[in-house]
Amino acid sequence: MLAQLNSVLGLIESLQAVDTTGVEPMTHAGEPSLRLRADQVTEPDRRADYQQGAPATDHGLYLVPRVIE
Amino acid sequence: MSSPAPPGWHTLPVSALRKALDTAQVSAEALAAHFLQRIEASSLNAFIDVRPEATLAQARLADQRLATGERGPLLGMPIAHKDIFVTRQWRSTAGSKMLADYVSPFDATVVEKLASAGAVCLGKTNCDEFAMGSANENSFFGAVRNPWDTAAVPGGSSGGSAAAVAAGLAPLATGTDTGGSVRQPAAMCGITGIKPTYGRVSRFGMIAFASSLDQGGAMAASAADCAALLTAMSGFDPRDATSLERETDDFVAGMLAPVLTAARSANITESRPLAGLRIGLPREYFAQGLSADVEQAVRIALDGLVALGAELRDISLPRTQLTIPAYYVIAPAEASSNLSRFDGVRYGHRAEHYTDLRDLYRKSRAEGFGAEVRRRIMVGTYVLSHGYYDAYYLQAQKLRRLIAEDFDAAFAQVDLIAGPVSPTVAWNLGDKGDDPVSSYLADIYTLGASLAGLPGLSMPVGFGAGGRPVGLQLIGPRLAESQLLGVAHRFQLSSDWHLRRPPA
């Protein structure tokens, strides 16, 4: 794994050689302007559906190991 | 159930299947059963989840709609979905152990649109884990074999979709393309595939890899079939923040329309449908590294386009070599962020043994993700970390703009760009298994269009070493899907590469 990670880092190192002074970063293809929507409730309550795939739940809560002793 | 479909249905184009369904020569159910049978008998490992009851129920629904006189381009048409699109009725795994048993509580917009158009889902196709790969060898569910030569990879990441279409297991398939994942497997399996302009196809319900690059696409034997599928898949979706707000285009009509505007189509004739079309050949796409067999097939296809009236011009995309480091910074950076949601708590794999919450996260992720995904998460985290962010991530984004500007400059001189899809034909299974960089380098011709968000198409143009397929790539300016499909369609009307089928 370490050797492979190093070879990937070697590959991306070549970016450093390019002069990008004054170039605006491009964050997105096509650079869409983000839309705003009306502040309305559009999604119904589907908590039970969404928790079907959870490893462990109880009363609508996700269960994890105890974090506070 | 109606009488079984006669053998050979799986070699027919969508237009012929359309006619057969509309004239009740075959029922949607019989057609679906025919393909299910072929999937069952296939040993390519192209599918991850197949549920005949769910498929046949959808087919019967389509038959009912047909019986009432309803008609539609995809009503009753079988389709396979890449297992990156989430589905309620089939598992949604993204080719990962992390989601091996995951059933989505909702359908992706693409899945929903195709189901309401009456398309019949045959199941979910195998792919590289979270779409990260170029050979379909990074799937938790095992490698997919290339139907042209089972010693070869099918390409990736949409390798299951490409293999399924090539082998006649599905007439149509969806794919996704982040850095070439529709175009490259299409080329390696000898089929047609199109990645549209970023924003055309909704990403809602498409399991995220690199959100600024991910784009759904269409895969089928021909450009005409891809046009029908792309029309049904694309369109504005308010649930995807980056969806393009525009009217849904009819790519079938667009494909059949003249490839140039009225002002420039004066010389177009029936035998020269591409007269006046300027196609640019980037010299960087024909430079050292392109294997001779691929170049030969591509050059012969270009001669074919010239015979149809197109003019070839030499152009340059000077930063082609730099698309590789730019992409392999940006895509892992976005992936590391997107994949942080897999924590073993809300859904997906949870380790069996752990000591505390941190250990639960650590073990669940280490067990749930395969080697390539772990590598990309680590590289992505590294390039986003304090002290390296400017040098890698920001620098890659600046370079991305320069790469996009190279395409803008090229499209000031030419209408379309053409070149190879991949430097070589499909390699042997296992050949690049341990060396991610050698596989990354093979993405060189597809990454540019992805970074710039441009539409790209791959079509079959012959065979190279070992009788393995070669694809020609066409890249267009933003929203030029109809021209790409139009050029490919004219080429396919005058050639038969897209009709070739692998040995049974």
How would you characterize this protein structure?
The complex is a heterodimer of chains A (69) and B (504). Chain A is mainly alpha-helical and 69 residues long. Chain A contains two helices and two strands. Chain A has a two-stranded antiparallel ribbon with strand order 1-2. The two termini of chain A are 37 Å apart. Helix content of chain B is 37%, strand content 12%. In chain B, α4 links the parallel β2 and β3. The two termini of chain B are 27 Å apart. The mean pLDDT of chain B is 96. Chains A and B meet through α1 of A and α10, α11, α12, α13 and α14 of B.
> Percent of residues of chain B in helical segments?
25-40%
Helix tally of chain B equals 16
Secondary structure tally, helices of chain A = 2
- How is the largest sheet of chain A built, in terms of strand order? 1-2
Helix fraction of chain A, binned, reads 10-25%
CATH topology of the domain at 9-254 in chain B: Amidase signature (AS) enzymes
Low-confidence stretches of chain A: none
The computed structural class of chain B is alpha/beta
Secondary-structure element order of chain A, N to C = HHEE
Mean pLDDT of chain A: 90
Multimerization status: heterodimer
Radius of gyration of chain A: 23 Å
- Count of beta strands of chain B: 11
The topology string of helices and strands of chain B comes to HHEHEHEHEHEEHHEHEHHHHEHHEEH
Q: Tell me the structural class of chain A.
A: mainly alpha
Q: Which runs of chain B of at least 5 residues are low in confidence (pLDDT < 50)?
A: none
How many strand units of chain A?
2
Distance between the termini of chain B: 27 Å
CATH C-level label of the domain at 9-254 in chain B: Alpha Beta
